Hints:
The complex is a heterodimer. Helices cover 0% and strands 51% of the residues of chain A. By secondary structure, chain A is mostly beta strands. The mean pLDDT of chain A is 92. In chain A, a hairpin with a 2-residue loop joins β5 and β6 (53-57). Chain B is mainly β. In chain B, 0% of the residues lie in helices and 54% in strands. Chain B contains no helices and eleven strands. The model of chain B has no long low-confidence stretch (mean pLDDT 91). Chain A binds chain B through residues 2, 4, 31, 33, 35, 40-45, 48, 50, 55-56, 58-59, 90, 92, 97-99, 101-103, 105-108, and chain B through 1, 4, 6, 31, 33, 40-45, 48, 50, 88, 90, 92, 96-105.
Amino acid sequence: DSGVTQTPKHLITATGQRVTLRCSPRSGDLSVYWYQQSLDQGLQFLIQYYNGEERAKGNILERFSAQQFPDLHSELNLSSLELGDSALYFCASSVAGAFGGELFFGEGSRLTVL
Amino acid sequence: GQQLNQSPQSMFIQEGEDVSMNCTSSSIFNTWLWYKQDPGEGPVLLIALYKAGELTSNGRLTAQFGITRKDSFLNISASIPSDVGIYFCAGQPWTGANNLFFGTGTRLTVIP
């Protein structure tokens, strides 16, 4: 158990819909990272938040947005969903704002868009 | 973003055999890491490498940070069934970079 909690574990929805994925980082970790893993693909970095502020942005679509709340949990919002958005979405956390060596990953949220 | 090429894509080996996989990049990385992902789980860090030429072991696992800083390899000795999973390399492009770039993974199957 990494200490990172993601909900929901599974989500099935239709094209055009909007979903929200939630992540609670490890106790004491200030940074939250979101990654997307499509079938047979590596993990694609989407976005990072540190202590409530956006710190780095990767290949995140404009239809996607994220935020980190004062209690440090984070939400990833995916809107106008397309079939190609079906993937595993991982949240990871670390103590520091700048990556220092280890990310702790949650178990992921599997999104299926029909 | 930076591309990490991992090979082989998949491996089928007999229990007890040694395994070797590698990761290459066209650009320099400051930190190399190796993660393992079990089915239905998130990736778990196996080994972190911070210096060119560094060779680090973690039990039956040994990893090296290539001297050119553009590659890394992971060896697993005397494989066992629980080594099954997907192994990912990951790199931090520069000190202070806030993200990791991941390879596409090597899927390992161990035949008892």
